[in-house]
Amino acid sequence: MASAAEQLAANVNFGAFAKATELKNRIWFTLGALLVYRLGTFIPLPGIDPTVLEDIFRQNQGGILGMFDMFSGGALSRMTIFALNIMPYISASIIMQLMTAVSPQMEQLKKEGEAGRKKINQYTRYLTVLICAVQAYGIAAGLEGISSSAGPAVHNPGFMEFRIPVVITLVGGTIFLMWLGEQITARGIGNGISLIIFSGIVANLPSALASVLELGRTGALSTGFILTLLVMSVGVIYFIVFVERAQRRILIQYPKRQRGNKMTGGESSHLPLKLNTAGVIPPIFASSILLMPITVISFSAGTGPEWLTTMASYLGRGQPVYLLLYLSMVVFFAFFYTAVVFNPEETADNLKKYGGFVPGIRPGKNTAEYLDRVLTRLTCVGAAYLAIICLLPELLISEYSVPFYFGGTSLLIVVTVTMDTVAQVQSHLLAHQYEGLIKKSKLRGRRS
């Protein structure tokens, strides 16, 4: 027999959506914020020749620059005010989460609740500005050395004439996106940072499909391969949805207690552990750490020291060194982020506090060890799943020059963010229906 929540979820319809005014306002706010972001990806930096940059990106569209351009929604290839996108903020968040795991002071801040969380967020913003300034200066310096058959990329190079304005503009653009993402999370629907990356990928999907069809028309790709690619993309989406919904449910039993003449308790519930607890975070974290240094190296290769050119060749798309680094970071962040979001000892203590226990496992330390063991096994499978999803398309992309938008990382981000956003919409609709039921019951109570 379905539970009340399941019955309400089954009854969610467009009529309920039409009555949920707050939900509609949140959705409109989210769409408006994403529209502002997309408009910003077309505002160019001052002093840049777009023709030269177009030639450069056309030559490197199958490389690292193309990958980073995908995450920035095309802002990097157009070299706009949002060229760095939200990646510096993600890098700063990674560093702060690492600090909370290794620094006693940061760990204490984390345990202070809302006040500690605000301080950590403030430190993250400061670190974002620092990282963004360093990366922006590296890009500005690299752009000054870029030229093509159409001429140099920068009209008026110089420290005060070009580099400082570019650094200020790029830092301001990233800070604005950081603020916009926080506003979407607080006043809109879904996670703002994830939705910004999601919208950049989705906005360029039509052009990516058109480029694949163009490759088929010119004979660069066979019709059979294009059909296989589309079928593989659908299969990858199905596989992602299946794994993201997979759970290991651990049975939790509560003892019976006698209160007066009645026996209470004795219920059982489940502790759901997702197969991929880290979600889409590992590939985003791995990409954010790898892409910016490699982008700066790619800009400087040929104009700087010889070792930069050598590194650029080793870290090229599909190269063993790049694939190994990417795989290692994805696996590392899968385990690291899982450890951040789920604490077996804290969960075991909470179960013991409320009288819950896992059948056959003693409460306390033994339960914590059991949960840790189960979670480690699940994370191994989840990390392997992320590695397959992210690396196999990388090989296809490097071999056949397929656009990145059909790769595993982009599909993983799109599908996961869509599932999370839809889940939030459903939870708002359920809350609205619960409020309606409570109001009806109060009115009936007054009439009776």
Task: Write up what this structure looks like.
About 70% of the residues lie in helices and about 5% in strands. A hairpin with a 2-residue loop joins strand 4 and strand 5. The two termini are about 30 Å apart. The strands form three sheets. A two-stranded antiparallel sheet has the order 1-2. A two-stranded antiparallel sheet has the order 3-6. Strands 4-5 form a two-stranded antiparallel ribbon. The N terminus is likely disordered. With about 450 residues, it is mainly α. The chain has one domain: Preprotein translocase SecY subunit, CATH 1.10.3370.10.
CATH architectural category: Orthogonal Bundle
N to C succession of SSEs: HHHHHHHHEEHHHHEEEEHHHHHH
Shape: globular
N- to C-terminal distance: 30 Å
> Mind describing the biggest β-sheet?
2 strands, antiparallel
Q: What's the CATH C level?
A: Mainly Alpha
Give me the count of strands.
6
Count of helical stretches: 18
The CATH homologous superfamily is termed: SecY subunit domain
> What is the strand arrangement across the widest sheet?
1-2
Helix and strand composition category: mainly alpha
Strand content: 5-15%
Q: How large, in whole angstroms, is the Cα Rg? A: 25 Å
